[in-house]
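PROTEIN DESIGN WORKSHEET
SECTION A - STRUCTURE
LENGTH: 113
TOKENS:
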């Protein structure tokens, strides 16, 4: 079985907002989706959310503030899954709650060195 990375992207301002109860419901939908992948024994790493703060290191030791100042889309987190093919990984990604907020999931096969 191959491993795939799901990269969760959304507009910088497109992150869900709401009452504590609404945010808990959003969190529960994410937990349910990840749990459904785990129940199929296809979850490699549940992934993590990323803090908004960061730095970008470029050649010649140039360090700038994180990419959120340079791009419209924000990378909000990631998950690692197992699947037999890219098509199967895409099918797993289709249930992601990020679509409710205008976001997207980039699906990439991992090439182990």
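SECTION B - SEQUENCE
RESIDUE ASSIGNMENT:
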């Amino acid at each position: 079985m191959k491993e795939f990375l799901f990269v969760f992207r959304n507009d910088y301002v497109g992150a869900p907002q709401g009452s504590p109860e609404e945010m808990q419901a959003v969190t529960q939908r994410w937990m349910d989706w990840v749990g459904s992948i785990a129940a199929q024994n296809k979850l490699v790493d549940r992934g993590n959310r990323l803090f908004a703060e960061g730095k970008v290191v470029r050649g010649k030791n140039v360090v700038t503030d994180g990419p959120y100042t340079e791009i419209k889309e924000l990378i909000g987190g990631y998950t690692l899954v197992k699947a037999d093919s890219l098509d199967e990984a895409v099918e797993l990604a289709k249930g992601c709650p990020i679509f409710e907020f205008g976001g997207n999931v980039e699906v990439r096969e991992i090439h182990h060195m």
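SECTION C - NOTES
The CA atoms of residues 12 and 74 lie 5 Å apart.
The first strand starts at residue 2 and ends at 11.
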